[in-house]
Every structure is written in C-alpha cells, then in structure tokens.
Amino acid sequence: MEADRPEVLSALSQRMLDCVGLPIAYFDRDQCFRFANAAFVDWLGKSADEVVGRSVAEVDGEDVLPLYRAYVESALEGERTGFERQLAVPGRPALWVRVDYHPDRDRSGAVRGVIVTYIDVDNLKRLELEAGQREHRLRLVTDSIGAPILYCDRQLKLRFANRPFGDLVGVPADDLLGHALRDAVGPDAFADLQPRAERAFAGQPESYERRAQHIDGSLRWVRVSLLPDRDPSGAVAGIFVVLTDIDDDVQIREALKAQGRQLRLFADNIPGPIAYLDRDLRYTFVNQAFAARARPPAGGDLRPGARRRAAGRGGGVPGADPRPGAAGRVGRVRTGQRRRGMADALDAGPRGA
User: Fold this and answer.
1) Between 148 and which of 156, 164, 185, 189 could a Cys-Cys bridge form, CB atoms 3.0 to 4.6 Å apart?
2) Closest of 314, 343, 316, 318 to residue 330, by C-alpha
3) pLDDT for 5-35, tens place per residue?
4) Which domain holds residue 167?
5) Are 146 and 163 in contact (CB under 8 A)?
6) pTM (predicted TM-score)
7) Distance CA 273, CA 266 (A)
8) Same structural domain for residues 233 and 276?
C-alpha cells in the first residue's frame, strides 16, 4: 500500500489541478515537460501525450522558442520571469497570453524545475493596442499642427508631448515623458506657468503671453493656453498646455502702436483742430487742439448736431448763432476756415447734423 502512495498522490494532484481553470505545466532542468493539466494542453490545442515527456522546443515550436529561450534559461537559474505572447492554434483565433515561469527549488535551494502558468490577457492587450493606435493617430495630428503641445497630470509630470514641443526644447518628445514640467520648460517659464496651472486644475482655462526661447537661442512671442482635462466624473485629471506662435502678430501690433504714437505726435503738433468721425457720427480721434477747444453740451454728447439742438433749446454754446441756416453757414466757414475763426467753427459743431 505504501508503494502505491506516490502514484495515488500524483493522480490526486493531477485531478485537483485539472479542476483549476488556470493552465499549469512543469518542466525539469532538461527542459522536458513532466506535467501539464487539462487546461494547459487544451490551450495549446494538443493532447497530454503531445506535451508530457516532450521538450519545451517541441511543445512551443522550434521557430518560437528562440524568442523566449532567455526567459527559460533565467528561470532555471532561479529568476522568476514572464512575458506576453500570442498563442496561435489551428482553427482558433490568436490569443494573447501572459506566460510566467516560477522556479521550483528542492530542500537545498537548488532549482530542479520550472512551473509554467498561462493567463488570458487578450482583452487587455487589445485595449492596449487600441490605445496605442489612438495615441499614434493623436500624435500624427498634433505633430502635423506645428504648435507645441504637452499634457501633464496633477503632479505636474509630463504624460504627453508632441514633436514640435520636443523641437522647441531640443529633446525628443518621448524622452520627456515622466519628467517634471519644471525640468521641461525651465525655471523662468515654470514660474509664470505654475500659478496659472493651479487655476487650470481648479477648472478655469488660462491664457497668457510671454517670450519663449528656442533651442537656437532665438526669442519669439507665444500665447500659452492651459486647458483643463476632465475625467468622466468631472474631476480635472490633468491639463493640456498649447503654445501658439504669435511673434508676427505682436510685431504687427507693436508697429501699429508705434504708428499710432507717431500719428498722435504729428496731429498734436498741428495748431489747428483735427477730428475723425465714424459712420455712427462718433468721434474716434481728436487731437489736443480739438480737445482743448471743444466744449461738450450737458450730457457730454459730442455728436454733430448736438450743439445746434442744444442751441435751439436755449442751451447753445455762448457765441453760437441760433438763427435758421446759421449752422450751415458755420459749417461752410469751418470747412474753409476763412471768414470766421476756428474756435467759432468748433462751437457751432461739425457740419452734417
């Protein structure tokens, strides 16, 4: 009876492991399978006789084993290893599995074999592949836009950066991932960005302008936009940072301001009053001479005709002629600036009311 005990225990172990849905097998130091449960041989699409007593190369395939030989050898040296692979069984769709090798040691600690387990990771792997494809498409789009774009989490760690941002700082975009935002943009830029990032994490989009230094040392004006990224629950999980080159716009804007200052300086040095009215008969420009001489009626209405209407109600400007037709005469005099003084023309108001 005692002689039959090992066989009984072996059969009992076989039945117990066959009840486990997890594929399990065992190979010795000679890389020969000594055990495989029902799930293991089923996943391989083989019978037990085609696995037990066969070498790892025979079971996995001579063409496949070179890809994973290093894992087998490391496991036999005592290191727990694992990898992902596709199981291709005739008549079945390819299945992604996680293969783990667990060293089996004797009482002295020497490795005498390896326990093999398979785990179905097909759905997870397909989700990862789909996510990778989506990220690839996103990168193609963001790289084509030309504007530097990055994404950071609440710990201000970079989780995404497109190629234009990498070109801006002189570092490949993939090498930036996982680094602190401060290290990626520099201390000066980070000092401007940090308080605005805090408001963006609170859910408020932010935008500001600053001069950014390129890797070649050149300085260009950029608009920095911080856009909150909300998860399905509505919480802000991170922020997108978009840099838009506005250097040409800033130069044009500054040139227009300079021209405006030159025009103002020129107009203010002309002794005669000058003004410009828009289509709504509103003054959009007056020089100092005009402003000094113009005296708006009650209510501050400077529109042409306001003075004549005020004069008709007895509230005219002192010295203005309230007689019918006087406004036209005054307008003509203002245009010619010959028969009356400019001050009288201003008091009468522009023509065309």
Assistant:
1) 164
2) 343
3) 445 445 546 666 766 678 999 999 999 999 8
4) 126-248
5) no
6) 0.48
7) 12
8) no
List strand residue ranges (DSSP E) for the chain, in order: 24-28, 33-36, 81-87, 95-105, 111-120, 149-153, 158-161, 206-213, 219-230, 236-245, 275-277, 283-286
The per-residue b/e assignment along 297-329, b for 16 or more CB within 10 angstroms, e otherwise, is beeeebbbebbbbbbeeeebbeebbeeeeebee
How many domains are there within the chain?
3
Which amino acid does the sequence have at 203? G
Strand ranges across the sheet with 33-36: 33-36, 24-28, 111-120, 95-105, 81-87
Residues 136 and 238 reside in one and the same domain = yes
Question: Are 132 and 116 found together in one domain?
Answer: no
Contact 34, 51 (CB under 8 A): no
Residue 341 is classified by DSSP as: -
| Amino acid, res. 232 | P
What is the rounded distance in angstroms from the CA atom of residue 260 to the CA atom of residue 253? 10
Rounded CA gap, 278 and 303, in Å? 10
Q: Which residue has the tokens 């009356």?
A: 340
Work out the average pLDDT over 184-206: 92
The contacts of residue 17 (CB under 8 Å, 6+ apart) are 24, 35, 37
Q: Please state which of the ranges 26-30, 219-223, 266-270 shows the lowest mean pLDDT.
A: 266-270
Which of 258-267, 315-324, 327-336 bottoms out in mean pLDDT, i.e. has the lowest?
327-336
Q: Which helix (H) or strand (E) holds 56?
A: helix 56-60
275 forms beta bridges with 286
